[in-house]
Amino acid sequence: RLQILPSVEAEKQEALKEVDSLRQELRVAKRFEVLFRDLEIERDRLCHDEEGLQATTRSLKKDRADLQELRLRDEKQLEELRAKLRDATEARKWLLAEAEERLRAAAAAPPRRWGAGLRGGDAATFPV
């Protein structure tokens, strides 16, 4: 009976070591399970973020295209306004030149007498 006790004690120690080892493996497995779950959550969040980024990128590309279109339209309108301004400036110059010519012609012409003999015979002088 004494010889069995040391062998039973050795088996008991061996079994306790194995239980400790299994407990350690279980703790490690639980940590991995928690880490894996955290990774899945992070993956889902990143996928959601990526979808959001893709939507934002599409929206920004559309906004850029819209802005480009507006810029081109504004440039066209600006060029049209510049052309109208050039035309108006040329017309103004022409009208001013014509008015100056008429004023010179009127200043050079002798004054006309209108209304002589009307209403008491007073004549009024009007340059034309």
Structure in words:
With 128 residues, this protein is mainly alpha-helical. Helices cover 82% and strands 5% of the residues. It is built from 1 helix and 2 strands; from the N terminus they run H-E-E. It has one helix at 4-108, and strands spanning 112-114, 124-126. The protein has a two-stranded antiparallel ribbon with strand order 1-2. 0% of the residues are buried. The model has no long low-confidence stretch (mean pLDDT 87).
- Described by the principal axes of the CA atoms, the overall outline is rod-shaped
Widest β-sheet, arrangement of strands: 1-2
Q: Total number of helical segments?
A: 1
Quick one: biggest sheet?
2 strands, antiparallel
What portion of the residues fall into strands of 2 or more residues? under 5%
> What sequence of helices (H) and strands (E) makes up the elements?
HEE
Helical amount: over 70%
Give the low-pLDDT segments.
Answer: none
Distance between the termini: 153 Å
Calculate the mean pLDDT score and round it.
87
User: What integer value in Å does the Rg equal?
Assistant: 52 Å
How many β-strand runs? 2
Structural class: mainly alpha
Attribute tags:
82% helix, 1 helix, mainly alpha, 128 residues
